[in-house]
Every structure is written in C-alpha cells, then in structure tokens.
Amino acid sequence: MAALTVLALAVVAFFAYQANAAPDRPGAGGKPDPTPVEEIVPDKPSETDGADDENPALPPDSGDGVRVVYSLSAQRLWLVAEAPDGLGEEVLHTYPAHRSTVDPEPGAYQVTRRDEAIPGSDGVPIQHVVVFHSDDEGIVFGFSAAVDGSLPDPSAQARTGGIRQSPEDSPQLWEFAEVGTPVIVVP
C-alpha cells in the first residue's frame, strides 16, 4: 500500500513538473516574460515621509501626469503613472541610473525611438533602448541596459549620452515608456 502511495505521488509530481515547464506557459524555458505596465507593482514608500533610501521621493517640480523623471544629481529614474483611483499619481518604480560622459540639459522631452537591442555608442551590446533626445552636436540621449550588465565609463574620451540601467530594471522602463511618453530631466 505504501508503495502505491509513493508511486502516485511520483506521478503527480512528474505531471506538475511537465505542466510548469510547458512551452506555452509564461516564463517557460527560463526566460521571464516582460511585465505589462498594468502589472508593475508600485514601490512601497516608507511610512514616515513617503520616501526612503531605496525609494526616494519624486523630485519637486518634475512635471505631472504619466512620465519618466530622470534626476541628474540623484542619478535616478522614476516611472510615474496616474493613481488607480484617477486622483493624482503614483510612482510605479524608481531605481538608480548611471550617466555616461555627457548629460542632457534639464527640461521636458519625450520618447522618440525605441530599440529592443543594438550596439551602444561605446561598442557594448545594449537592450531596451529608450531614446528621448539628440542634441545639436548629434549626441543621442537615452536609457538602456548593457547585455553584460556593465556600466558606462564617465571618464572615457568619447562623448556619449547613454544612461545605463541594470538589466533587472530595464524591462520596466521598456514596458512603460512608449514613443511619445514624456521624459522630464531635472537638475
């Protein structure tokens, strides 16, 4: 009798494993599916002042409505959406970003181009490229993640405007920032 119970449990475990690894199951094959914007869980602020070290408060005078906010001094991004109740806004996600050799001027921009994967201006393969500005000198400013997780060298001789994110954070911006999404750069 015990042998039949063990056999039955083994069969159930095998079928559960097969169902979990099925190719039509989201995330099968070890590749995470992109997180749709409506499924991004907002970062939780601290209970004291609405911000903490991991989730600092949205900078003042950073616009309103749906937008990406990039702070030059904090080297950080915020993804801001309308609150679910339609009253106000909420920060969906905030995380560090790493500058290259040239910073964009503070101001209001919008996403002009997106590329799934391309070579970066520093020669490193990058993914989740979200471009928001090209200046008069032809320097292109945008957010991306190096496929190998490397960061730009701000002391390099080449003048580049790539703002790098971690490969863990870049899918959230990629899903959030469509062409036309406002990007606000603050000092």
Tell me about this structure.
- The protein is of the alpha+beta class and 187 residues long.
- The protein has one domain (37-186): Beta Barrel (L,D-transpeptidase catalytic domain-like), CATH 2.40.440.
- The chain has helices at 2-20, 170-176; strands spanning 67-71, 76-82, 89-96, 107-110, 113-119, 125-134, 140-146, 161-165, 182-186.
- Strands 3-2-1-9-4 form a five-stranded mixed beta sheet, covered by helices on one side.
- Strand 2 and strand 3 (89-96) form a beta hairpin.
- The chain is globular, with a radius of gyration of 21 Å.
- The N and C termini lie far apart (73 Å).
In short:
With 187 residues, the protein is an alpha+beta fold.
Structural topology:
Layout: H1 2-20, E1 67-71, E2 76-82, E3 89-96, E4 107-110, E5 113-119, E6 125-134, E7 140-146, E8 161-165, H2 170-176, E9 182-186
Parallel strand pairs: 1-9, 7-8
Antiparallel strand pairs: 1-2, 2-3, 4-9, 5-6, 6-7
Entry keywords:
187 residues; alpha+beta; L,D-transpeptidase catalytic domain-like; 5-stranded mixed beta sheet; 4-stranded mixed beta sheet; 2 helices; 9 strands; 14% helix; globular; signal; Secreted protein; LD_TPept_cat_dom; transferase activity
